[in-house]
Amino acid sequence: MQLIIAFAVLGLLLVAGGFLLRPGPSAKLRGVREGNSVVLRPPPWRYAVLGIMALGPTVLVVAVAFTAARRNGMGTAGMALVGLVILAGLAVTAYFLLAERGMRVRVDEGGVERIDPLKRRRLAWPEVERIVYNGVSRWFFLTGAGGARLWVPESMAGIGDFADAALARLRPEVLQGDEATREALQQLASEARDEDASARLAG
């Protein structure tokens, strides 16, 4: 019975998570200004849902371990392995819950910085050697000197500000290296200007 419940919970989480986390355009193209920077944030509840989804496999492991212990018992090695899996699942869940509040991308005249619960990664605009747009996952992937990497999802509120800054600050040869990426940035920048015009008319 425990296995059936665990699989049912896992299935529901995967279905709900797939619906809530499906790629989509940002609802707000302008981010929040903090001094000379613009802060981009992911859609609300995105990382919270991922955190809940991460509990699914953990619940499944607990159910399987409980059933095995009742039927055949478990040795010390088995219990230790189950404990490690549970700790890993809880750690991943904790990371995503922290990311719900702390994940953000900061854009300014000097560069772009991605901030998550574990570390910060920053690329100055002149250091960017390549920018690629993934039309399926809908994120921009930036590569810098020495293999430094940073990605910016299109679904983040403020992606229009990122597009503006990238078009203005990236070296021409970088922008010209991928026509599809340049067109995606131009489209987002244009939509952001339309959003600004609509806001002015509404105000």
Broad structural category: alpha+beta
pLDDT averaged residue by residue: 79
Strand order of the largest sheet: 1-2-3-4-5
**Count of separate DSSP helical elements:** 6
Helical proportion?
Answer: 40-55%
Q: Would you summarize the structure shown here?
A:
The protein is of the alpha+beta class. It contains six helices and eight strands; from the N terminus they run αββααββββββααα.
How does this structure look, described?
- The chain has two domains: 2-26 and 43-102; 105-202, PH-domain like (Roll), CATH 2.30.29.
- With 203 residues, the chain is α+β, with helices and mostly antiparallel strands.
- α4 packs across α6.
- It has six helices and eight strands, in the order αββααββββββααα.
- A hairpin with a 4-residue loop joins β7 (139-144) and β8.
- The termini are far apart.
- The longest helix has 27 residues, at 76-102.
- The radius of gyration is 21 Å and the shape is elongated.
Q: What is the element layout, followed by pairings?
A:
Blueprint lengths: L1 H19 L11 E3 L2 E4 L5 H26 L4 H27 L1 E4 L3 E5 L4 E5 L3 E7 L4 E6 L4 E5 L5 H11 L2 H4 L3 H24 L1
Antiparallel strand pairs: 1-2, 2-3, 3-4, 4-5, 6-7, 7-8
